[in-house]
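Session log. Operator J.P. requested a structure for one protein chain; no other inputs attached. Running the standard single-chain path with token output.
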Amino acid sequence: MADDRPVPLDEYPVHQVPLSMKHVATGDRNAYDRGIFHVFDHAGRALLITGLGVYPNLGVTDAYATLRLGDTLYAVRASDTLGDDRLRLAVGPLRTTVERPLAEFVLSCAPPPDDPDGLSFEIYWSADFPALWEPHHVQRRGDRLTLEGRRFVQAGRCTGRIRAGGREIRLKPGEWTGTRDRSWGVRPLPGEDGGRLAAEHPTEGFHWIWSPVRFEDRFLMLVVQEDADGHRSLNDATLVRPGRRDRQLGWPQAEITYRPGTRHPERAVVHLGDVRTPQKLEVEILTSSPLAIGAGYPPAEDWQHGTWHGPAWVDRRTYDLREAHPRAAYGVTDHAARFRLDGRTGYGIFEHGSFGRHDPSGFTGFDSVGR
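Structure written below.
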């Protein structure tokens, strides 16, 4: 029988509905609450991604970290049964410590007991800019709601150390950037068959850009989601400058140059601004980490977020990114990138996924690629 006594978080005046904080105000199995951090150097040598999520209606909490060094991807994944203490952000060897909400965090991963050279890190992540809300994100398949999320994004700097493969990397001030994404709501999780509804409403195409960029004196966030015909269901471009009102930069239009024979971007130009003050954001890809490899995002086949593995499950793997990973081509990829805007150079993430038909890009189907 389930134990439904009050949990520690019930002591605080944070309730939104007449339920214990152990529960969410929806019975949807796909309810989630998750935070993700990106940590990368400005030369494109390393890209670390780590996240921790809670799936309250599945009774699961899990976390992951991936590190790309050269052509090797180191991955740690951990899953556990969901406990009552929601203030303890730890699963297996992975932990996120909130030192100051919306400002300072410690990200850590303990090494495996039998392998001191396995992936581990201790990173101090501090925000340089206030957190910025993204647009309310809603997706439907036919008339069925499949995704509704609230999300904010932030950028800052990182110090600390990372160890993997016998190497120790020191994160030196001024040479590393951090971004983070915090979201909650409902989104598709493994274990549910779409059935006839999905078969009768197939996805013809999906095109996605999500890009937080940190400059020394400002922060830029842009997000674009388009259907096969280019219809835009999500759109935002906002420039944050301390002490000034956030500036909206209109309807971003991206020109992406893909590696021939792929949909892997090598560089891009994003047109921003309004008719009076058009601007160009130049994007140079430094290194990439496909989220379907190691990080648990669809269509990963070895582990996905929210999957039940029982208590205290931990899995560590390394992947050779020179080998073919066909599923990665149908998942979103995070690219650490150098950006240039208005004479300034910044660093951030250019997250991109393009699958199926996309008329504005000239892609005619799932087998269509860049030339």
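Operator note: Helices lie at 195-200.
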